[in-house]
Amino acid sequence: MRCISWHALRRLLTSDFYGYLVEDESGGEKPRARWGSHVEFLLAGIGLAVGTGNVWRFPYLAQKNGGGAFLIPYFVMLLVEGLPLFFLELALGQRFQKGSIAVWKQIRPYLKGIGIAQVIVSFNMVVYYPIVMTWCGYYFYLSFMNPLPWTKCDNTTVDYECCHNDSSKYYWYVSALQATTSISEPGGFVPGVIISWTVGWVITYACLFKGPESTGKAAYFTATFPYVVLICLFFRGVTLPGAGRGLAVFFTPDFAKLVDPNVWVDAAGQIFFSLSVGFGSLICFASYNPIKNNCVKDASFISIINCGTSVFSGVVVYSILGYRETQTDIRVEDVDKGPGLAFIAYTTAVAEMPLSQLWSAAFFIMMMMLALNSEFGSIEACVTPLKDQKALKGVKREILCLILCCIMYIVGLPMCMQNGLYVFTLWDNYAVTIPLLFVGACECLAVSWLYGLERFNKEVEFMSGSYPNIYWRFCWKWLSPILIIVVLMSSCIKKMIVPETYESYVGCVQHPLNPEIAAGTETWLRDIAFPWWGQMLAAILVCAPIIWIPICCFLGRNAPVPDIPILEGMEDEGYVIENHVFDWRTEVQEIKTALRIGQKGQEEGTDDKNEVTAV
What DSSP element (H or E) covers 132? Predict the structure, then answer.
């Protein structure tokens, strides 16, 4: 096994790092790895797009933002943001056959910061997202116990009354997480969580270390099995008493909510996060496709499957919540957000079902597969750009993947501690959403205005067989970047005006967890502002990816722009490609010239009119 030398590391941190294909020992290029079949790519793409957010985040946002009315901004944002950027990233990966850093460096040397930002966002994502699979794996293990552990209370404990009021919530906070009352109280490692965390990372590495060869084969199971479980849960859920009540809450529209800009911001954020746009994962996955492939159909198919899964998951979840209301008198509207929807609301409902162990195990294995699929793409978005670099050509993919997985495992360990839920909330609020929106806007602007939209359209036509219509062109150049910038500014303003808080577990009124710090509440939770160090960490998480874009633009402002070679076979088919050179001074001069011509024409028209009047 070769180690990374200091010379290689130095080249890694300098300009040689960006944008080379891996070469073999003789100096020639190694053939790029490929998917075993197109089906493998589609399954991996569906697995990347469809994650746990479709099951717990979308239903919660729908209920919070007007029920069925939320589907309007959701699908509008899909059409004007999600689908155009999804198609854009697939086309870029397929055209350049490289990872994200190399793609943007080849378009313009000073754009490599976009690729670096995507790698850092993906890294941040994989640091905290696996804890979801960890919790699901732990609950999957608990599902084989009889009775289910969250259905019983120990009447010898002083807080028995709290547990008796809501045993599922009590088990989640007190037994499973052993939660402290504050993010500033780390406590110790939770044994069950740390074991599940380790097992989850071993499984992840086993599915990833061979690249598309192993990921594609794993996707046959990890991408299809969740749908089998979801369909079974659907038929079980809609036949339960109270299912109609739950579906009524989910679909009944409150159109008054549509005038609230926060509803549209939530819809845009959900589309961005759910489709995995901006991470660079789609670029990496598409780079393993052949040049000749209809990426238009791929983008449309995967996007529709993803959004359809969100709505279908909402039906499953709310039919079960309706049943919970008939059994426990907990209103459907009182739905927990985030992990609470899965680990409190669902576990409460499933405990009342016949064969509760079976339905519990099925649900949590489904959630594990969904989380695992999303991890595949995010880790691939880190591994592929690094593996494409000349400085790392001597490092085998298996070793590079192992190093990255070990680093992510160690960095994410704080989430396995007793304050892990609060650390997870901090990362979830700041590490991904704002950087993704910023990167997405940069992608549209870079392709449309710097690379050249006309050239890109011709290349898409050559690869897929159809020229992008006016819808795609208008979205890429104008509509998508403008809306993303509006949503980005709204998100930033909201976070600056409204102090960011997290829900701290303080215990019930009768027996607070730590009365010296906070009294108990009816909901057992209390909103607490993040401490100063938490706010500093949040600022770092937001700025760490974004800062590379202006840095690389400044450092590479005088770098020569090399000609991008035409795709092999395009000239034979009669395509004429010209390198688009964008220069601000030239563009501004053309605008001024156009304005002068227009003004002159208007003046001449006025003079002619005056002459006619005089006659």
Answer: helix 130-142
